[in-house]
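Data card: per-record layout.
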Amino acid sequence: MREYLLLALVTAAVTYLLVPPVRVFALRIGAAPEVRDRDVHTVPIPRLGGLAMFGGMAAGLLLATHLPYVGAQLATGQAGQTVTALLVAGGVIVLTGFLDDWLGMDALVKLGGQIAAGGLLVYFGMYLPWLPLPKDMGGSTGLDPNLRTIITIMIVVVVINAVNFVDGLDGLAAGIVGIGALATFAYSIALSQSSSGSRINVTAAIAAILIGMCLGFLPHNFNPAKIFMGDTGAMLIGMLLATSLITIISSVDSGALDRMNKFPVVLPLLLPIAVMVLPLLDLVMAVVRRTSAGLSPFAPDRGHLHHRLLDIGHSQRRSVLIMYGWTFLFSFTLVGLSIGGVPLILFPITVVLAIAVLILMASPRWRSRKGERRRGKNKPGGGGASGPGGGQSSAFGAGPSDPGTAEASATRHTRATTL
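The structure for this 419-residue chain is written out next.
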């Protein structure tokens, strides 16, 4: 445990210290979006924060190779080339994101970079060898080389873009991914007490480094942000999270699955859903919303969950903290249920309840009716909304009488994202 803590602290310190010089570099080369009339910031906010995060990741990985326990685990078994895999694949992702943040890049080119990173992970042994399923679901299912390559790359691409989609407010993506990495770390430590295998320890090491990257970057990125991570950072932490989930999915000994048919057995498959349910839900809703309106799935809009929270009256900080709290409670509830060995039926029940709470929190109509009742009590005659700022916010934008508030805050980060 001490080595994992040291990994997280060193990664966080290096990331934190690298952000200021990276910010200066980004401003010098012009890697900052132009300030628009509706923005709340008055100076360009640079992107490229992912460069500092990559430096922190590299420092953590190099330190890991010199630690007696973690280093030995990284150098053995199927994941024996973990450090090389993450540095090379991460380098491809960072280069792709850097060019996009600086010069702009076609969505298909970015997709090609993501696929290349996933392919490099497979090449260096970071792939999904089997699906650990309980006996009632057919038992463990081995994957042939072609299938495991395709599934691994698909996981990497989906997680990267899910993180990219949720990167819309100061500190949101770094916080949610950090919480997801913390849940993954907690489960991998608990799993290592009852099972053995280098991949469990590799998962814990990757999660510890990812936690450090997010913690080191958040002080510079929390509202009001001094720097954005950009696609450079969003795709990098998405790739790392995907890698930790891939290793933990296959970490359960396939020979032990026939003797178990409880929640902990299938949690390696369910934990990725728990960790990524918020970004994945936002991604799916965005694609459905845009295509149903006759738009491209890549077209930016203001219908994301964080936009809805802003539009119903929450501040940027409160919106981010709400999503932090929801992600934390949901992820760690599932980890707690898994450790207790509860029946599997509780998983879908937990998911349904959690999504219902999220929808309720982000429901503009519910919030609007509540606001109308309050205004009716405070105004003579029980009148509805009137006066400056009294118009109702819609699901996709604040009213025109809300200058410089929710809409300005939300548009600060609105940008085209890729699938």
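Known properties of this structure: The CA atoms of residues 206 and 244 lie 6 Å apart. The chain has one domain: 2-372+394-411.

See the next section for split statistics.
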